[in-house]
Specification:
Elements lengths: L12 H18 L8 H9 L11 H15 L4 H6 L3 E9 L3 E2 L5 H4 L8 H8 L5 H15 L10 E8 L2 E8 L1 H9 L4 E9 L13 H16 L3 H17 L1 H11 L4 H10 L4
Parallel strand pairs: 2-4, 3-5
Antiparallel strand pairs: 1-5, 3-4
């Protein structure tokens, strides 16, 4: 058996399942005119990307996941939470009122600014004085789902977050689905939930997209060519910070992103204390 170059948690089945579920969900929006009968085959292909002989896995899988997260949705940080070694993921049904919206967006902005709890949102919509607003919001939700393949029952992605010195369960993906769940008066919802295993409540040893490392190295290379030592060290500082949070990033830098050109490579490795 070939030795795996990455830490075991990167191959964790529940993380892959979560990522696949997210990608399948997003592809339904991106390819909304594809007839429903074709989606089982598309779903099957996506589910097999981690094992595809045409891809360099797990690199291409996690880079592709990040590409969709950020390229279309600006889902900032989702890749880090999903792949963090100090977060354990499970799929389970939990109470709707135990959740917090991860962002301020139109349905919650009607109530007040800032990220709100599902309980606050529910109390607002089901207050008798807000009946008209509730019905209008139901129509908005219906329009968002109209004309696209079914996706509203896909699990929401939730992770622990520190808010006002308390640990809350915050939505990372699925804020609109949570609004729909509230308006349908459901008490529980299916989620992928990430809980920290460490005292520190921030992700550690996660997948750093290879493209980010490439970009920083490219800017550093231009500074190196110009003999701009100050700018070069700024880029090295950013890379040092990234590498301090992820051993995976160090591997990607040395084995994939860093050029073989000797003078630049040696200067980078020396600056990052990798030789």
């Amino acid at each position: 058996m070939q030795k795996r170059a990455y830490p075991p948690h990167i191959y964790d089945p529940i993380r892959i399942e979560l990522a696949v579920s997210y990608l399948q969900h997003e592809f339904r929006k991106l390819f909304r005119r594809v007839p429903e009968k074709y989606w089982p085959a598309i779903d099957k292909d996506i589910a097999d990307w981690m094992n595809s002989p045409l891809l360099n896995t797990p690199r291409d899988f996690w880079n592709g996941f990040h590409g969709i997260c950020m390229g279309f949705k600006l889902a900032i940080g989702l890749i880090y939470f999903v792949t963090a070694e100090n977060i354990v993921w499970k799929k389970e049904k939990i109470s709707v009122e135990s959740l917090n919206f991860g962002i301020e967006f139109p349905p919650t902005r009607l109530i007040k600014s800032g990220a709100l709890s599902a309980k606050e949102v529910s109390e607002f919509y089901f207050s008798p004085k807000n009946k008209r607003i509730k019905e209008e919001q139901r129509k908005v939700i219906k329009r968002l789902s109209w004309g696209t393949p079914p996706r509203d029952k896909d699990p929401i992605i939730v992770a622990e977050k520190i808010l006002d010195d308390n640990i809350v369960l915050s939505i990372h993906e699925g804020n609109w689905r949570l609004i729909k769940t509230i308006l349908e008066e459901k008490k529980t919802v299916l989620v992928y939930i990430g809980r920290f295993t460490s005292q520190e409540k921030s992700p550690r040893n996660y997948w750093v997209p290879t493209s980010i490392i490439y970009e920083l190295l490219n800017f550093a290379k231009e500074a190196f060519k110009r003999k701009d030592k100050k700018s070069f060290q700024h880029y090295m500082g950013a890379l040092r910070d990234i590498l301090s949070k992820s051993e995976i990033a160090a591997y990607e830098l040395k084995e994939r992103a860093l050029t073989g050109k000797k003078s630049f490579r040696e200067e980078v490795l020396k600056s990052l204390c990798l030789i």
